[in-house]
Amino acid sequence: MQAGEITVYIRLVWLFVFIISVLMLLLCYLYLATRRAQEKEAQSLAFSHLAIEGLEMERRRVSRELHDLVLPLVQDPGLSGLIRSVCMELAPPDFSRLSLKASLADLCAKFTKKTGIECACSIEEELDFASISADHQLHIYRMAQEAFTNIEKHSRANRAALVARRNNQGSSENILICVSDDGQGIRSMTGKQNKPGAAGFGIKSMRQRAAILGAELGFISESGNGLMVRIEIPIGYGV
């Protein structure tokens, strides 16, 4: 091998070593970036658990104090009824006594009674929440409850609806829950999905609950055509 060939060979070897080194550095960077993202996601999920757990504890405490300390002092029947209604909204449903399906249907009926807004409730008969833990059933119930609260406060709607059914997508099967209304929608969300302009505390708590469930939470709004809250829950999650 002549000197020129040796020089070319050495240069090729060094070029190969350089390329391998760059690839190794790139792989290390991608690994570290992925690990940091996973750690951040885990921390965010842990924070969501703590925040929602604290919220539920506070709901129970306020409900208990209203019922035990305030209600006995109230003489007015109308005010007593209002306090009892608030206590029931704050306290979690007893899923050992009333199934989530029945609780969602009851939520629709109470919403109509309270607001005067007609609410259609369509829950697939074969839909079964039995494989989902009670804690996660509560997250689903609270998300639907918050959606109805938003309709009551902001929508100026005449009609609302809750639909719950199985949703097959290829080889995967999910539970789809939609709460919608025919109100004014949310202007900051017009034509956009999953991008509310100024998310309030209620929407933030819904996002935290969706993260805990591993669910997809969507907001579909068109000006003058109401708002749809779409919750897609993977079956088998939260067993």
Write up what this structure looks like.
α4 (134-155) links the parallel β1 (118-123) and β2 (159-169). The protein has helices at 3-70, 77-90, 100-115, 134-155, 201-213, and strands at 118-123, 159-169, 172-181, 216-221, 227-234. It is elongated. The N and C termini lie far apart (70 Å). α1 runs antiparallel to α2 (77-90) and α3 packs parallel to α4. It is an alpha+beta fold and 239 residues long. A 5-stranded mixed beta sheet has the order 1-2-3-5-4. It has 2 domains: 1-91; 95-239, Heat Shock Protein 90 (2-Layer Sandwich).
Write a compact overview of the structure shown:
By secondary structure, this protein is an alpha+beta fold.
List keywords for this structure.
five-stranded mixed sheet, alpha+beta, 5 strands, Heat Shock Protein 90, 239 residues
List the helices and strands and how they pair.
Blueprint: H1 3-70, H2 77-90, H3 100-115, E1 118-123, H4 134-155, E2 159-169, E3 172-181, H5 201-213, E4 216-221, E5 227-234
Parallel strand pairs: 1-2
Antiparallel strand pairs: 2-3, 3-5, 4-5
Helix pairs in contact: 1-2, 1-5, 3-4, 4-5
